[in-house]
Amino acid sequence: MNKENLFISLFNNKHIGDDAAYIDGFVYSADAFFEDIHFKREWMSLYEIGYKAMAVNISDAIAMNAEPKYAILSIGLPKDIRPICMKELSLGLRDCASFYKTEIIGGDTIASNKIDISITLISKTKKPIFRKRVKEGYYLAYTGELGSVKRDLNRLFRGVKVSKYSKFKRPVLKKEFMKRVSRYIKAAMDISDGLFEDLGKLSKLNRIGFEFFEKIPKRVGCSGEEYELLFAFDKRDLKAILNISKITRTPITIFAKAAFKPYRNICKPHHFT
10 Å Cβ neighbour count for 44? Predict the structure, then answer.
């Protein structure tokens, strides 16, 4: 049983089901980033923890073709955390927010046994892109390369250090690519739970399956927290999308087309395990 999906299903609301909720030109999203669930302090500096916590929230806005504007923080901090550590954590949060032109406007802090960060993001868009609208024959593609996050996470579990440029530590969000390509994209989401898991969400929502052009290794399809873009488009727009990929230096992989056939995700859930 996928307990995440079960819990979400208990809230019957027309705005639930996408990377964020779109209401009257605004996009609202929220994500949690908790110690020993999403990260361990021995794996990342406090600056890196703050930066990634903000980045994974902004990723949802970008996937819906929205401009992040404001962030509200709720942070649980250990009672014995030193002021210099608090400054380092806040600098990571602020630097990421500033890079994506997002203003931190408030929030709440509480005492906790661990570092727990929850962020609510408010964004704006004139043309939201949803997960729904995948039709038979549409091509499916993703940005960047998949698999390195799972590889680096396995290394960290073995006590091996990974590069500060690892996507596990610092996701590379494709904001410029989405801004230019949005006119051609029919549906999109970010890859947070892994390609195969997130394809399952598209499949269920659109009542459609996928015909893969070639076999995708499990180490690639089950790699979570990639924060690349997964999107569907009409094959008539292929040339325009490839041109934008070249202009923005954003590699894309076109791996399947939507088809009326069953789809089964072979990965284990990333939540409640």
Answer: 22
How many angstroms separate the CA atoms of 21 and 17, rounded? 8
Secondary structure, 3-state, 89-110:
HHHHHHHHHHHCCCEEEEEEEE
**pLDDT of 10 higher than 60:** no
* pLDDT tens column, 232-271: 999 999 999 999 999 999 999 999 999 999 999 989 876 5
CA distance 72 to 54: 10
Separation between Cα atoms, residue 155 and residue 49, nearest integer Å: 18
Q: What is the pLDDT of residue 270?
A: 62
Tell me if 76 sits within 8 A of 112, measured CB to CB. yes
User: Both tokens of residue 100?
Assistant: 């994506």
Q: Domains in the chain and their CATH numbers? A: 17-124 (3.30.1330.10), 139-259 (3.90.650.10)
Q: In what order do the strands lie in the sheet with 229-233?
A: 185-190, 229-233, 139-143, 252-259, 209-212
